[in-house]
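Bump. Still looking for ABC transporter ATP-binding protein structure tokens.
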Amino acid sequence: MSLVSLAGVAKHVTLPDDSRLDILRGVDLEVAAGEHVSIVGRSGSGKSTLLNIMGLLDSPSEGVVAFEGREVGRMRPGTLDRLRGRSVGFIFQQFNLLAGRSALENVAMPLSYARGRAFWSRRRLAAEMLDRVGLLHRLDSPPEQLSGGEQQRVAIARALVRRPALILADEPTGALDVDTGASVMTLLDEIASDSDAALVTITHDVHVAARARRHYRLEDGVLAPVELDTEYRRTALGAVSPA
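Sorry for the wait, here they are.
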């Protein structure tokens, strides 16, 4: 059974002049537990909108989204919030860490909304996850004292501390140099594999996309499978530009 599935998903908004802007058009996608799927596309192609719908942060204008076999559109807001908090981990390009708070406090933050043992053990669990990403020696350091690669590893630890079933990475290496980005993706792959989590990487970088088992391209709101050999040639011609 698919962990998350989209069937005929479309997203559109009405502009001030009453015209309609189509962001996504008839997207069909299924992702199972343990899969790594990449979606590549140029800036403005609708990648972040698609990620927000998959991550239960946004609703489609048309179509059906299901999570663990349950139709998301039929869920009550409170049920949806709990499902998202428990089952989805987000990793953003800009890290979105809390300034002035230690790495430990940043990673423990999602567990502030947990119940029972996870809540009472949140600092220990956060420290264990920071140790997993190689930052045990940085527990007390705030973001402003960390390098870009270290900040991204804190963001990964924060996203994974609740052991989500679905990890959504939006341009996870976009703010990093090539070597640091490669090490971050290797770490993310390892952690996702260890926990049998589904990993969906949204990126403009086909080198990052190549790490996935299945590859898609999003163009003008249309999602389609892609062969990376073809995508490399398009990149060489400038068809995919940085976000």
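The longest helix spans residues 178-195.

Edit: fixed formatting.
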